[in-house]
Design a protein that fits this description.
The protein is of the alpha+beta class. It has nine helices and 20 strands. The protein folds into three domains: 83 residues, Immunoglobulin-like, CATH 2.60.40; 255 residues, Metallo-dependent phosphatases (Purple Acid Phosphatase, chain A, domain 2, 4-Layer Sandwich); 59 residues, no CATH class. The strands form four sheets. Strands 11-12-13-14-16-15-17 form a seven-stranded mixed sheet. Helix 2 links the parallel strand 8 and strand 9. Helix 2 crosses helix 4 and helix 6 runs parallel beside helix 7. The chain is globular and about 75 Å long. The chain binds fe (ii) ion (FE2).
Amino acid sequence: MCCVKRNMFVSSLVLLLFVLHGVGITAIRKGPYLIYPKNNNQMTVLWQLDLTAVCTLAWGLDTTYSTGSTSVSEYGTDHQYKYTITGLAPGTRYYYRITQDINTYSGSFLAAPATDATSVKFLVYGDTRTNVADHNSVCSRIVSTFTADPNYQSVLLHMGDWNYTDSETDWADQYFSRAYSPILQMLSGIPVHGCIGNHEGSADGFKKYWPYPFQAETYWSFDYGPAHIAIVDQYTDYTSGSAQLNWLQNDLQTSTKHWKFIVLHEPGWSAAGGGHPNNTDVQTYIQPLCEQYGVQFVLAGHNHYYARAIVNGVQHITAGGGGAPLTDPATGQSNVVFALETLQFCKININGSRLNFESVKPDGTVFDSFQLTLCDNGISPADYTGPEGIPDCKVDYYDLAVLTAGWLNCADDLCTHLVNFNDFALFAAHWLDCTDASCN
Ligand SMILES: [Fe+2]
């Protein structure tokens, strides 16, 4: 009798588990989240479940997800799933949905810009570890930013120290926390690309969850519209003669992009405080490459505040306000032009030869902003374009062609459709303002 009861209990339990499985008790553990695979026709969607399943990923131009659909089986040894959607139109918004039993998980993304795009917007933050609620407050503002301006739903650069440790527990409870919907919304809506920090340790968890198209170790680079972004691994040798520094030099030298960014964790110039001195390897090995190959930005974290230093025209940003316990920047640090202890993220807006930069608090307050151009002495308003289709820091024939085309197409009531003396006087005044030594 005893055995009969036990067998009945076991049978009932098996039936219950079967039924529960059938009604979708399966839990998603991470994601969905996104990786941009260095190809503006593609996006990789990733997620992790608590069991082996066959999922369906469908995508499309709206929430009918009618462009494509595929079955996705797990890979690896820990119920991970990923699929790279191909055939995307650059710069176009897509919606995707993962179906597993009756569970569905959805998101959207903006396919990366056209290769010859001259404008792009993207976001920057770092040091998201430890205080998940604070990280969530930054994520919430990031989501509202790209909801208000969909062009910011592009790529989010991460400056490292994603979690307190690289352990499974910390990846689950911190960066991929499921306790806050803004974190989930952000991860499902924008590919996050970043470097490792000292808290990533061996980076086994980092490489498991972020299988980026690495060049080697955890460094690589990619183009994104008019920007070239190189991600440096400071825990692999990058001193003179190292494989990484040789790669970086060649990478920057051969890039045809006008705007260049280096992402790394420990800043070369920052505002001290919190026990972190400036990283002299960045000063010795990275800064000369920036000056030689026209890198405008070195984006870093490590110090849990925002700081900006300018060294020979190179902007060294510390964007360490992503959620880690804040520290107080010291005053009077060399080359530092701005520092503030605050949670924050950065917005970068490139339009041709002009770049607008903003650092933003979770409440939306912009507390540091500046503009750069590709020319040291600024660009005349009459510099519309150049032979490569973007402003080239010279007011020349190409600009005259744009300007006259504007006149010829003039549809304004006040427009005379005539190119007259006054128009040329205005245009010539811009030429006369040119003070660059290379100005012709
Ligand atoms: Fe750090």
